[in-house]
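Researcher: Go.
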Amino acid sequence: MAQLRLPRRAPRPLPMQILKQNPANPSGFMALSARLLPLATTAACVLIAIGLIMSFTAPPDYQQGHTAKIMFVHVPTAWLSMFIYLLVAFSSFGLLVFRHPLADVSAKAAARIGAIFTLLALVTGSLWGKPMWGAYWVWDPRLTSVLILFFLYLGLIALRSSIEEESLAAKLTALLSLVGIVILPVIKFSVDWNSLHQPASVMRLGAPTIHAALLWPLLVMAAGMTVLFAAFQLKAMRNEVLRRRIKALRTLEAEALAEPVEQAAE
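Model: Structure:
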């Protein structure tokens, strides 16, 4: 009696085999990111949980009291809003100059995440400004420049969504992101232009001016949110790669179905 042989499943690649794959290749990136994504998500949750505990147990500021603890969310999101845009511009440069296969995927994914972090920076900054300045919003150079950055993120998203041809949309959004990079030094130095916003307390030439009891929770929260962004970016890039693969397969399927119809018409 003949035995039915089931097809063998392909063996899962070992971690070292995954690491040896070229991450610049979409297939290599998908394999590597599948391993890194759970690690990044777990690390982000742990760091943010530790940072929140440290934030709630930190002593109040001698001037602003507990209100100053808003900075444990506001400052990391403000840092990331600029860092993510730098990543968008760097990815756009890689697309236009080197034609990197994942450059546009990275730029598209980062723009949406950057808009969210910038919005969080604006909202938390407004909540912090109300007890300090007496108003949720003032047309301060720092606040206004960050608002322009938020609109720039929205412009990149809207421009890409308005163009159906993906290659053209990628090039135009890449050009816009490279032009818009001038907003980053404006944000950085806007506190020196008769601004109500306090100057840099951590990222400065000298030692940080913030007390260690408040500095360490801030750094842990910044690390946690940075790793959280990395997890979001990996997940968004994976989704975009899969979306493009599905679109390519559907295009091939439509062409295959249309070919017999065209032959019959001839």
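Model: The mean pLDDT is 86.
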